[in-house]
Amino acid sequence: MSEPTPPGPGPDETLDSIGTAGVRVLQRRSGYRFTLDAVLLAHFAATEGTSTRGLMLELGAGSGVVSFLLVKQFGLGPVDALELQPAVYARLERAVALNACEGRVKTLLGDLRRIREVVPGGQYAHVVSNPPFRVASAGVRSPDDERAVSKSEVACDAKDVVAAARYALMPGGLVSLVYPAARVAEVMGLLTQAKLYPSVLRFVHSRVDAPATRFLVHAVRDRDRGLAVRAPLIVHGEGPGGYSAEVAALMDAPVAERLPPGEE
């Protein structure tokens, strides 16, 4: 007997493709939707994290874009994907089957602020996170709970993310994060205080002559090896979909034309 076909998108869902390895994710049509930040984080974690291989953990996995890209496009993992919101988690579980990632992506329902109740400490080689960007007091909170939790620090803040990463990582383990450029001093300080020493920093600019909007940081638990600042990552250019050649190479051109940029 043939295996049952994994369920497709429901009435308020879309099935979206990303990357060059056939990654597919389920998203709520009217809820929070992944942005380019997730793609850039997966690429950064994979290319800057080559010194350590093994079990990975994604904090706040959402639709699973980062986890699926890591295992399917970059051949890393396996990945444990931790998600707080039950409805988002349910879509993530279905997407594991859609991507044939059973055994490579394991879904976990839980709160990163209570990480000790979810996973044993010190067992992960690499932790990645595309966390909520906006401080809780900044701007108007979205009336949609899914959007609010995904975009604003209403369920966790940067200190919580760093603490969870510190707990989960083995000695010498790696953490890769993406945050708004305006928060670079804050996040770098939190990492250093937790003895997660920044080793690679890369700023993301929408265009070559525009200010940085994001930064990607890679840090090592308990080992300060100095900081390397990479050349800026330029998002938009003359490549497919209006992206730079570097960014366009990470995804199929038709998808690149539709993918939204990161939200402030």
What does this protein look like?
- The longest helix has 13 residues, at 36-48.
- This protein is of the alpha/beta class and 264 residues long.
- The termini are far apart.
- A hairpin with a 6-residue loop joins strand 8 (196-205) and strand 9.
- Helix 1 packs across helix 2 (65-73).
- The strands form 2 sheets. Strands 3, 4, 5, 6, 7, 8, 9, 10 and 11 form a 9-stranded mixed β-sheet that branches.
- It is globular.
- It has 8 helices and 11 strands.
- The chain has helices spanning 36-48, 65-73, 86-98, 145-151, 158-168, 184-193, 245-248, 253-256, and strands spanning 13-18, 23-28, 56-59, 79-83, 105-109, 124-129, 169-180, 196-205, 212-221, 228-229, 233-234.
Report the end-to-end length measured between terminal Cα atoms: 49 Å
- Count of strand segments: 11
Taken as a percent bin, the fraction of beta residues is: 25-35%
Please mark out the parts with pLDDT under 50 across 5 or more consecutive residues, or reply none: 147-152, 253-258
Secondary structure class reads alpha/beta
**What is the rounded Rg?**
17 Å
The string of secondary-structure elements, in order, is: EEHEHEHEEHHEHEEEEHH
Query: What is the overall number of helices?
Result: 8
Mean pLDDT figure = 86
Overall geometry comes to globular
User: What composes the largest sheet?
Assistant: 9 strands, mixed
**Helix residue percentage:** 25-40%
